[in-house]
Amino acid sequence: MSIPTAHIEVKESDVIAETVLLPGDPLRAKFIAENFLENPVQFNTVRNMFGFTGTYKGKKISVMGSGMGMASIGIYSYELIHFYGVKNLIRVGSCGAFQPNLNLYDIVIGMSASTNSNYASQYNLPGSYAPTASYTLLKKAVDIAEDKGYDVNVGNILSSDIFYDDDADAWKRWAKMGVLAVEMEAAALYMNANRAGVNALTILTVSDSLVTHEQTTSEERQTAFTKMMEIALELA
Ligand SMILES: O=P(O)(O)O[C@H]1O[C@H](CO)[C@@H](O)[C@H]1O
Ligand SMILES: O=c1cc[nH]c(=O)[nH]1
């Protein structure tokens, strides 16, 4: 394949910055572009998966929706890395808390991403694989959060293929293993980045708790998780 790719309508690769924020929700991408970027220019509308490039504190940065699930982020991150030269991919997502100490709006950073998906089977590995974040981005994100006075919870997250699980207690077995929270994309993002030798990180905000059953609204998930956005933008 050459550019433009099947899913991103950009004819020149330098339209997209080397650092791209990837919220699952394309409207969260639009919110970030409109509220945080200077001079944002929209570069993608294919499938309404909005993508924008602008600057943040003078540094070039892009933000684009990844869609929900590993199949979707697998496509977008692959095209960004292999056809548009993207080097730093930072997911900014929502997650469901597995641990009782995590409250709504708390920030979780995925140092590693366990998964129930079969995504790694393509690599034919003689064992299991531990999808892992870039230590460089992870350390920088933790330092930025500390400077801003934002608490972050760093650890293992679960990237699940299933939002509505037939086994209502499945999450408890991951929680027992110390997994902090569930989302649906990080493992595929980390595998694509690890395979290509580029950097990836996942920063999440707790949108609901499987422990307490508290939850935020869809509007809050689109626009209110600004602390993680600030941390991610500072990584440019
Ligand atoms: O808020 P986003 O980034 O989409 O992340 C989470 O929300 C979606 C499910 O509601 C999944 O994509 C999950 O990973
Ligand atoms: O994947 C997700 C994302 C947010 N909340 C959940 O419970 N699951």
TrEMBL record:
Family indicated by similarity: Belongs to the PNP/UDP phosphorylase family.
Enzyme superclass (EC): transferase
Family matches, as NCBIfam families: deoD (TIGR00107), PRK05819.1 (NF004489), PRK13374.1 (NF009914)
Ranges of residues in domain Nucleoside phosphorylase: 20-229
Keywords for this protein: Glycosyltransferase, Transferase
Annotated source species: Haloplasma contractile SSD-17B
HAMAP family associated with the record: Pur_nucleosid_phosp (MF_01627)
GO molecular function: purine-nucleoside phosphorylase activity; uridine phosphorylase activity
Protein's name according to its UniProt entry: Uridine phosphorylase
Gene Ontology biological process: purine nucleoside catabolic process
Catalytic function, reaction form: uridine + phosphate = alpha-D-ribose 1-phosphate + uracil
CDD domains membership: PNP_EcPNPI-like
One CC-aspect GO term: cytosol
This enzyme's EC code(s): 2.4.2.3
